[in-house]
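fyi for ur records
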Amino acid sequence: MSDRVVIIGGGIAGLATAIRLAPMPVTLIAGAPLSVGAATAWAQGGVAAALGDDDAPPLHAGDTLKAGAGIGDPTVAQAVADAAPGAIDWLASLGTPFDRDAAGRLILGLEAAHSRRRIVHAGGDGTGRAILMTLIAKTRATPSITVIEDARAESLVLDRDGTVAGVTIRRGDATEYMAARAVVMATGGIGGLYAHTTNPLGAVGSGLALAARAGAVLRDVEFVQFHPTAIDLNRDPMPLATEALRGEGATLINDLGERFMESVPGAELAPRDVVARAIWRELQNGRRVFLDGSGIADMPRHFPSVTALCRNAGLDPTQSPIPVRPAAHYHMGGIKVDRNGRSSVPGLWACGEVASTGLHGANRLASNSLLEALAFATWLSHDIAQPRNPQTPRPAVLPEATKAPLRKSNRAAMEQYLGVIRDADGIAAALATFVGDEPAIVGLLVAAAAWRRRESRGGHFRSDYPEPDPAFAHSSDMTLAQATALAADLAGAIPRARRQ
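which gave:
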């Protein structure tokens, strides 16, 4: 059996795991040059950690569970909150340039649904890139890590007993088999499947599809978070107006000058799903929506990324409000894993957005995503490093999914049928639409899970079932086989099923 660990994905989850696994031999597969294809670099928020004198990990865990709308795992939430200060210390030890005051203390920001200031930033709203560059430098300097860039994982390879034995990867026109004692999926989310997204366009759920084809159990795939304030300046993908702007006093107004969030509990700092739906309704009513940050002192210094993005598009955010709209941003669902990051398929672990750990529930709390990746990278690396009995695998390569480019029509269908607000007709149409290639596998999974959840909760809102239902106050597991069977069953009985 190979001693090598193969990690698929070059964002914070993959890099942190590779570093934590040293000195074990690791091969990290990245679909693009490091720092180019990872959503980590675009993270404007920060890392949540209970570091203030008025804060504590149980408060952080409580906010996480509240945002998760009743289906988050309390044990996981507490464990991740407890791990947060150590994660910040680890990043600082690697040289991450966190923002500090004149006395050298970390500056703590406030974001929506947090009850305390606990968001740690680096370079203002450039936190993701600062962390990513720190981890890349450490990865390059670690002899045990081999990085293969511009390569694509084609399929997981299973032993005859169903254990992952390795992966096939494609580089250029060549495909090769890479044996591994463990494979870690760290491929990010699914936002690129949507017509409006803040994610890299390569974030189309490839890791989710690979795991699903291998028979992995998935969890909560219906829950997609739409960031309320993507900057609406005809860019694809859409730049992001970080939530921290609202934490510092920016307000949402429509083109009539109305502050339509004022009467909503929490106002602009309500949970993301609440804000996203409020903006969506304004847009559906023919209004435009803007984020007014004119009251923020010295915006260019505190929010250099947002300021530069706007000015490059001919808009000065210190003088004019920023046009915004909801866009697909984060996937709460993914490959179901335990506290050690293990999936239901032996030999396969998952970390980061592609995983469903139980932390986020139905709605991710702001700035918990980078933290989750850091915490689980530590735990799963310890698990993978445990001694294993040597085996003689007899690999059997899984059939490859049909590789096809992500079609514009598929992105429009995801937006129309599985967007901010859903209903039975749209979900049924999605189930009939998404068949065949790899991006369609993910669309099918989201649609099947959305069909089964006949309620509204967190990032999943159905206009035909607008209230939460206690009968669905739990996470939902699904396999690709179950999703495919559901689509087949509905194909001949959609009119009857819609009436149920």
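Residues 230 and 251 are 14 Å apart (CA to CA). thats all i got for now
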